[in-house]
Design goal:
The protein is mostly beta strands. It has one helix and 28 strands. A hairpin with a 5-residue loop joins β19 and β20.
Length: 392
């Protein structure tokens, strides 16, 4: 008789993916990810999945319930045999669409679901739920409310030319309003998410919180920070990545990758990452363009979604993947990688990493949002599920 499947170890690879909204789980014992075991399909429709592995080997997949068009809340599936079989789904949040698009993460043998409550927009509340088994969930102790803040802009401030010199299309970039989460020794769970700048709500910042730091810190720059992601290493290092524009005050192309590296000792390194072949930045015109209508207020637009997920290896070097459009088929997305240089990062003038604000702090904008800024923050109906399709 074959041995039962074991839980993924730190040397294994595991992923969740979607095929026509069917949730799929796969593992690989080849750390290069070259060979994968047969997929297991838990038999649920899902969107925006994430995977957490507890120290005791229990696996929890978290995902948004969907009918293929709308989302209705967050659910979980649980495996105690390395993903061979799954039980569930279990309700994490109700059917409301104001508690979706979060991440499930494990710290020790406890699972956490961290999400943005959007029910009082343009004010958001970052909330935390926890579970010992991935089946029943309750508010995190001692802090179920992590931060109250102003909703970030969901769309770029200016359009850009797709077909120079004619500029027959001038789309805009839609940002990723979702959060990203991970865990690390000494830090517990960690989360990164976009916020509106307190003293200038026309600009998006990002914030990161860590369970054992007891609060959240803001990362500021002169232009929008968006498409944020977070990864951690086994020794407690933390790596945060975001996209921004070609300069610190405008919205010029190309886009550039910005990285913040927090060592386990609490010190920081930060800078810009070079693109493929040493070319600074990433050309967003290679991303998929949704033509009007009905999306984007009858203007062409680029959807970032959550198509930038990255990992950190045992040596704390971060690999930052981004996705480009495959010209052969409009949804055939190609994965690309940028490795952070061993020599360090070019410095970023004007980048600031703020002090830690205690959990429960309110960091809403001190300046009322203008009508133009409110239009950059459209109401979250979550009816257009393709905004954030997938958990890549």
């Amino acid at each position: 008789m074959a041995d039962p499947p074991q839980s993924p170890t730190r040397h294994d690879l595991a992923m969740v993916d979607l095929s026509n909204f069917n949730l799929v789980f796969q593992t690989s014992t080849d750390v290069s990810g070259s060979n994968w075991n047969a997929p297991v399909v838990p038999g649920v429709w899902a969107d925006y999945p994430s995977l957490a592995v507890a120290q005791n080997g229990r696996l929890v997949m978290g995902f948004n319930q969907t009918d293929g068009i709308n989302v209705y809340g967050f659910q979980s599936e649980v495996s105690t045999n390395g993903g061979g079989t799954w039980s569930g789904p279990y309700t994490v949040t109700s059917g409301s669409n104001t508690a979706t698009f979060g991440r499930v993460v494990a710290s020790g043998n406890t699972f956490y679901y961290i999400y943005a409550d959007t029910s009082a927009q343009p004010t958001y509340v970052l909330r935390c739920l926890q579970s010992g088994d991935g089946m029943s969930w309750s508010g995190c102790t001692p802090n179920a409310t992590l931060n109250t803040y102003t909703k970030p802009a969901a769309v770029s401030k200016y359009g850009f030319c797709v077909n120079p010199p004619t500029c027959s299309q001038t789309p805009v970039i839609y940002y990723a309003p979702n959060i990203d989460a991970s865990s690390a020794p000494g830090l517990g769970w960690v989360v990164v998410y976009p916020v509106a700048r307190v003293d200038n709500p026309t600009i998006n910042n990002i914030k990161f919180c860590a369970q054992n730091l007891g609060g959240c810190a803001t990362i500021t720059w002169g232009a929008d920070l968006f498409l944020q992601g977070i990864s951690t290493s086994g020794n407690g290092d933390l790596w945060i990545s975001a996209h921004t524009y070609a300069n610190g005050t405008g919205y010029d192309l190309p886009l550039r990758l910005l990285a913040v590296y927090r060592r386990a000792d609490g010190s920081y390194l930060s800078g810009f990452l070079q693109g493929a072949n040493g070319i600074p930045g990433i050309d967003p015109t290679s991303w998929f363009i949704f033509p009007p209508p009905p999306k984007c207020d009858n203007h062409p637009c680029l959807f970032a979604g959550d198509y930038m997920r990255f990992g950190m290896n045992a040596y704390t070097a971060a690999t930052l993947p981004f996705v480009q459009r495959d010209s052969s088929y409009r949804t055939g997305l190609m994965q690309n990688f940028v490795q952070d240089p061993a020599t360090g990062l070019p410095p970023v003038n004007g980048l600031q990493i703020g002090p830690v604000e205690p959990f429960g702090s309110i960091s809403t904008s001190s300046i009322p949002l203008s009508q133009a800024e409110l239009q950059r923050r459209p109401v979250d109906t979550h009816a257009s599920i393709h905004y954030l399709r997938g958990g890549h």
